[in-house]
Amino acid sequence: MQAPLARLKRPSALYRMLGDRVFVVVVTLLALGIVALSLGLGYYLYLGGAQAIERFGFWGFLTGTTWDPALKEEFGAWPYLVGTLLTSFCALFLSLFPAIAAAIYAAEYAPKWLVGIINYLVDLMAAVPSVVYGIWGIFVLAPFLRENLFLPAYLWTAEHAPGILPYLGNPSGYGFFTAVVILASMIIPYTTALARDAISLVPQAQREAAYALGATRWEVMRLAMLPYARGGILAGVILALGRALGETMAVAMVIGNTNIMLKLLGIPLLYPLFGPATTMPSVIALEFKEAVTDIHLSSLIALGFYLFLVAFVVNLLASYLINVFKVGGQRA
Amino acid sequence: MIRPEVKTTSGNVHEELPLRMETRGLSVFYGKKAGVREVSLPIYNNRVTALIGPSGCGKTTFLRALNRMHDLTPIARVTGEALLDGQNIYERGVDPVEIRRRVGMVFQKPNPFPTLSVYDNVVSGLKLVGIRHKGLLDEAVERSLTQAALWDEVKDRLRAPSMSLSGGQQQRLCIARALAVQPEVLLMDEPTSALDPISTQSIEDLMSELKKHVTIVIVTHNMQQAARVSDFTGYFLTGELVEFGPTNQIFTNPKDPRTEAYITGRFG
Ligand SMILES: Nc1ncnc2c1ncn2[C@@H]1O[C@H](COP(=O)(O)OP(=O)(O)O)[C@@H](O)[C@H]1O
Ligand SMILES: [Mg+2]
User: Fold this and answer.
1) Is residue A32, in this structure, part of any structural domain at all?
2) Is B118 part of a structural domain of the chain?
3) This prediction's pTM
4) InterPro entries from the entry (chain B) (predicted)?
5) Domain containing A87: what range?
6) Residue A23 lies inside a defined structural domain of this protein
7) How does pLDDT run across A40-87, given as a tens digit for each residue?
8) Structural domain count of chain B
9) Is residue B17 part of a domain?
10) Residue A295 sits in a domain of what CATH number?
11) Which of B77, B78, B93 is nearest to B23 (CA)?
C-alpha cells in the first residue's frame, strides 16, 4: 500500500495555495448567498405587502379580524394567524407522544429487522408529498372522523349539553380537527426521526450508569437516555413545528377555509373544534390567483411576510432552547 | 450455605474469612471467542480485591460478569457460576435488576448524569426504588458523599450541575451515587485511570474507610495502586486467572513464574 501513495506527485505549492483560496472564496460566497437570500426574501415580502401594511398599520393588519376583498376591501391577518398557530401547536401536541414513543421503540426495543422497516417507513412518510396527505384526508380521514367521532360527539352534545354546540361547530368532516390530525400525521416522521437519532446517540456509558444502579429498561430510558437526548428531541419537535406552520396543500384541502372565529372573553381566539377554519398558507394559496385588486394582492403578500416573521421568531426561540437544553459538547 | 471450595494458590489460610461473592468456573464468551475462561475466585466480605494483568486480559470482562452487565451486550454469553451470598446470580429466575442494586459499579470514565444536579445524581438510585422522603434522601446524600470523600467540597453546591465538578470530583460523585443505594459489593473498573494524581490519591485514600461498609473489587492496571489499596489480588493473563492470594504474598512471593515476571517486570 505504501508504493502507490509514494508515487503520487504532490501538487505544486502554487496550485495548493490557489486551490485553498478558491475554496475559501466559494464557500464564503455560498454562505453569504444564503444570508442574502433569506434577507432578500423577507425584504421583498415586505415590499409586496407594504401597501396593505401601510394602509392598515403593522399592528392593525396583524390584529384586524375582517377579510373582505369584495365589498369593504378591508384586510386583517388575525384569523389566519390564529388558525396557523392553533392548528400547528395542536398538531405538535397530538404528534408528540406517538412520535417519541415510536422513537423510543425504534431506538431501544424493536428487534433489528423491525428497526429497518420502521426507519424505512418513517422516511417514506416524510417524503410523501403533502397533496397526497390531502387526498387521503379528503377521501379517508374526513369521512372516517365524521362518522366515528364528529357525528356521535355532536349528537351526544346536542342531547346533553346543547350550550357548547357552537364550540363543536359543523361536523361535516372538513375543518379544524381534521386539519390538525392531518398535520400531526405529516410531522410525526420528522419528530420520530430526529428523536430516534438523538436517543441512539446517547453514549453507552450513560445507559450503563443507569443499569448499574439497578434501573429497569424503562427507568434507563427515563433516567439516562431521554434527559441526555432532550436537545435532539427538541430539535425534532421544532423542525416539525416549522413544517406544520408552513404546511399548505394538505391543510387547505381539509380545513374548510372559513375565517369565522369564536370569541373567548370577547376576543376572537378560537375556531370550532370540528367546524371549518383557515390558516395563512392556505388562504394565500387559495386566493392568490383570484386576487384582482392591488390591495387584496398586497394583503396576501403581507400575510406571507407575517408568516415569515412567525417562522423567524420560532426558529430563533428554537435555537435558544436547543442551546439551553442540549447536553453534548460539554465536558464529559 | 454451601461450603465454598476456595482453590487459591495461598492454600486455605483465609478459609475463616466470610465470602461475599465467589465465581466457579466462570467463562464469558464474545461470540465464539472467550473473554475470560474458567475463573474461580473468592471475594471476601469487607475486603478489597484487586484484579491486575496486562491490557486485554479480561479484567473488565470478569468484573462485568459479577453484576450481570453482560446481559446488555447481545453477543456476550456467560457460563459457570457467580455466587452472591451463596446464590448463583445466573440461575434461572434471578432478576438482574435486583442483582445490580446489590452489586454496584463505578466505571473507568466518570459518567454522572449530565442533566442532573450533584444532589439528584446521588439520589437517582434511591428514587428508582421509590424512596421520595426528603429527610431520608438528604441523609443518604450526606452519608454517601462523605463516604466518597466529596462532601466537604460540594456541600455548599449540592444543586449545582454535576458537570460543573472537576473530573476527579465527578468520579467521586459516581462512587457516591453507587454507594447511596447501600450495595453489598462495589465493582470499580480502573476508577482512577482517567484522573490526575491528586484525585487518584483521594480515591485511594477513601477505599480503606469504604471497605468497612462494602466489599470492593477493583480493576487496576497500576500495580502500585493494587499493592496500596487491596487485601487480595488476582492476576489475569489472556483470559485466565493465573494466581490469586493475599496482596502481600502476590507481590512479595508469587507462586507462579508468570506472575513473578509481570510483577518484577512492572516494578522493575
Ligand atoms: N464487547 C466486546 N465484544 C467483543 N470482544 C470484546 C468485547 N469486550 C471485550 N472484548 C475482548 O475480550 C478480551 C478481554 O477484554 P477486557 O475484559 O476489556 O480486558 P481488560 O479489561 O483486561 O483490558 C479482549 O480480547 C477484548 O478484545
Ligand atoms: Mg478494562
Assistant:
1) no
2) no
3) 0.82
4) AAA+_ATPase, ABC_transporter-like_ATP-bd, ABC_transporter-like_CS, P-loop_NTPase, PstB-like
5) 57-324
6) no
7) 999 999 999 999 999 999 999 999 988 988 888 889 999 999 999 999
8) 1
9) yes
10) 1.10.3720.10
11) B78
Quickly state the pLDDT bin for B15 (edges 50, 70, 90). low
Give me the pLDDT at residue A12, please: 76
Cα Rg, chain A, nearest whole Å: 25
Measured between beta carbons, the chain B residues lying within 8 angstroms of A224 are: 113
- For residue B128, give the nearest of A215, A230, A327 by CB distance: A215
On whether residue B138 sits in a domain, the answer given is no
Tally of CB atoms within 10 A around A70: 7
Distance B69 CA to ligand 1 centre (A): 13
Rounded CA-CA distance A89/A95 in Å is 10
Spatial CA neighbour of A279 closest among A313, A255, A312: A255
Helix (H, G, I), strand (E, B) or coil at A9: coil
Going across the sheet that includes B87-88, the strands are B33-44, B19-30, B76-84, B87-88
Instruction: Indicate if the alpha-carbon torsion angle B233, B242, B26, B125 is positive or negative.
Output: positive
Instruction: Evaluate whether residue A38 is within a structural domain.
Output: no
Q: What is the ipTM of this complex?
A: 0.90
Distance B189 CA to ligand 1 centre (A): 13
- Name the residue of B39, B51, B60, B219 whose CB sits within 8 Å of the most ligand 1 atoms, as the mutation to test its pocket: B60
- Whether residue B176 lies inside any domain: the answer is no
Grouping H, G, I as helix, E, B as strand and the rest as coil, residue B208 is: helix
What angle, 0 to 180 degrees and rounded to 10, lies between the N-to-C axes of helices B167-180 and A204-212?
30
User: How near does any CA of chain B get to the CA of A96, in Å?
Assistant: 21
How many domains is chain A built from? 1
The range of the structural domain enclosing residue B99 comes to 4-110+187-263
What's residue A3's pLDDT? 52
Mean pLDDT by 10 residues, chain A (332 residues): 57 77 89 91 93 93 89 90 94 94 90 91 91 94 94 91 87 93 94 91 94 94 93 88 90 91 86 92 91 91 94 86 72 35
Q: Is the pLDDT of residue B235 over 50?
A: yes
A310/A249 Cα distance (integer angstroms): 19
